[in-house]
Amino acid sequence: xxxxxxxxxxxxxxxxxxxxxxxxxxxxxxxxxxxxxxxxxxxxxxxxxxxxxxxxxxxxxxxxxxxxxxxxxxxxxxxxxxxxxxxxxxxxxxxxxxxxxxxxxxxxxxxxxxxxxxxxxxxxxxxxxxxxxxxxxxxxxxxxxxxxxxxxxxxxxxxxxxxxxx
Length: 166
Fold this sequence. Notes:
Elements: H1 2-33, H2 48-123
């Protein structure tokens, strides 16, 4: 007798399994095609927990929509001010860059002029020709320089010589 009952129960389970699987797949496909809400609306005689869950879901969705609308309104109010501030920042940055470029150019020009003046002082100006001394070839160049000692000073016996060659 036990054997008959277990055979009947086993056969019933095997026959019910495909029906249960079809129901689960059908409900999953309707959920995917639906509005995307995880909790579906309740029918005529719903479970109390299902009603609470559905109402909570609707409240959360409504609150999220209201928050989204309020955020969009806030963004629309702030957007013109942000755009003005950004444009002001860009124009200020552009003028600052121009001023820096002008200052850098002037500094470079002044530095170049000072370097040229320093070169002119040390090396001589290319605009001023070097002095040319003309002497006959038979005369030595040392004859024009004075290497004779100067007169002794009254303070001691030191002799000083004029320095003409640097």
